Amino acid sequence: MITGELKSKVDRIWDTMWSGGISNPLSVIEQLTYLLFIKRLDELHTRDEHKAARTGRPIARPLFTARQNALRWSRFKELAPERMFETVRDRVFPFIKSLRQTGDSDAGSTYTHHMKEALFMMPTPRVLANVVDQLDDIDMADRDTKGDLYEYMLGKIATAGQNGQFRTPRHIIRLMVDMTAPTPKDVICDPACGTAGFLVAASEHLVEHHGDRIYKTPKARRRFHEGTFHGYDFDTTMLRIGSMNMLLHGVENPDIRYRDSLAQADLTAAEDDAERYSLVLANPPFAGSLDYESTAKDLQQVVKTKKTELLFLALFLRLLQTGGRAAVIVPDGVLFGSSRAHRTLRRILVEEQKLDAVVSMPSGVFKPYAGVSTAILVFTKTNSGGTDHVWFYDMQADGYSLDDKRSPKPDNSDLADILARWQNREAEHKRARTDQSFLVPKAEVASNDYDLSINRYKEAQLEDVEYDPPKVIMARLAALETEIAKNRAELEALLR
Fold first, then answer.
1. Taking burial as the number of CB atoms within 10 A of a residue's CB, which of 146, 320, 373, 436 is the most buried?
2. Residue 364 CB coordination number (10 Å)
3. pTM of the predicted model, to two decimals?
4. For the chain, which domains are there?
5. DSSP, residue by residue, 42-74
6. Tens digits of per-residue pLDDT, 296-343?
7. Alpha carbons within 13 A on the beta-carbon side of 286
8. 8 Å CB contact between 321 and 277
9. Rounded distance, CA 465 to CA 447, Å?
């Protein structure tokens, strides 16, 4: 967990760049991303140097040659501000933009690919030197510290304005990851990855629960770093930030690529991701509308619509392997929309696939940026049905206030209960429709036109209220009137 001292250090760095003339919060974190990347390259090279010293063997694929030593963080941080500025601007930035991966280098081609569009925006030597000194003062040797630091900086993007749309609350992401419980065998995808929050949380889950298997052999390590995590986005800034987020959380070379997930494209066999993934985790864009002509034809064959939230559901089904599972966030309209496209997709999930759960979330979860009510859909791709009962949960609280402030309220959260009940769903058969969670048979869902709104199935619990007989109430009123008259007479006597 990021400490108050670390927060204050990050805030000071942020203020330094802000007062130095970089007023766009997204630009601030971009520049910090590049500097952290440069620092990370030096850390990786230093690690390889120590390994070479222990083994007596030269570094197989050094990140820095002897002639490039001056480009390392540990070297240029000692320079005077003007020399440092020239070195970083004229030598270090061109270096990271041209750096190419060879074999399984720790640098990772995904980072260097996205760094090609990096722009050096530090306004003055003094600002650069100040930021470098402050970043160097932060001990980021611990993997969790690096991750929490970066998450805090991403949070500052969200609090600064409209860019908050790229972030799903971290505790909601963690719930979805825990519900799907990734294993080292999974191939995980987020086709609207933004800052890669879902992929980061999945990597944390794997390290926590399967760390021994991930790092058991060189082959297992390479699979974790290069073959497990896949993300698409069509915002190059988000790709750079997402790639760096993964690196700072210990994943060296994830597959994070530029792609408009819903667009029609001529994909080669190598690029076609149909039925490639065993787990999809996503919070796709809501309320968008696309032209039929620009939308992938195979998605239109599943459901004829312009709505992005429906097209993304069709995409998830295309990306998943048979037996693959998904946990995705959708707006409430997907659950009960009456259009043909809405009904078709819900029927597909219930009848042709295996719909496991619908977790209804309160409308304040995404405040202050959106007040729309949302839900988590959890389903498994079978192509042969399998839905028996659908598990519904009515989330009332997520550990934060549901107003624009989103103040922490750790004692008011349903998340632990959701996970516990999800992991013991057999016991949910005994739950009544008046409870917060319950199971609904598939036949009942089908008879309701595949409506997945929890309010369709939840029963209100009416409490009996007993009132006194009218004569008793009238007698009580008479007694009160007598007492009032008596008190008034006493007051009048005092005023004579």
1. 320
2. 18
3. 0.79
4. 4-144 (1.20.1260.30), 260-456 (3.40.50.150)
5. HHHHHHHHHHHHHHT---SS-SS-GGGGGGSHH
6. 667 777 777 778 888 899 999 999 999 999 999 999 999 999 999 999
7. 19
8. yes
9. 35
